[in-house]
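REQUEST ID: PR-0412
SUBMITTED BY: lab tech R.K.
PRIORITY: routine
TASK: structure prediction, single protein chain
INPUT:
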Amino acid sequence: MAIIFQNKYPAKNIPIHKTSSSWLLKAMEEENYVLGKLSYTFLNDNDLHKINVEFLDHDTLTDIITFDYNRGNIIIGEIYMSVDRIEENAVKNEVSFEKEFNRILIHGLLHLMGYKDKEPEDKFLMTQKEDYYLSLQPQK
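STATUS: complete
OUTPUT:
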């Protein structure tokens, strides 16, 4: 199976590279998961907000929404990302857009692999995992 990347925000340049899929697959392998079907969809704030309200009943802006349909250790999911939120977070965190974008890519996948981020200790572990997998990214 493949990882599908869909840009529904064509006004923005999305930093998906030839190595993005293999990097995400390596993370799955290290966590003992295999790919079933995974899609990433890149949206603006308004479109992601609509999904957040309709499906999660959350009337807030967010950078990512992950829908988990996994079967055991088989990754099956849909990940929706707000490019607007990622841009704003990159400025706030003083990192490049591409680095923040990749952090959110792996963040969504980590959610599909069972990691949570609501409690402080869970958030700490999630950030450690993000940093680790970001360090494994192939250089372009």
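NOTES: Residues 48 and 61 are 8 Å apart (CA to CA).
REVIEWED BY: pending
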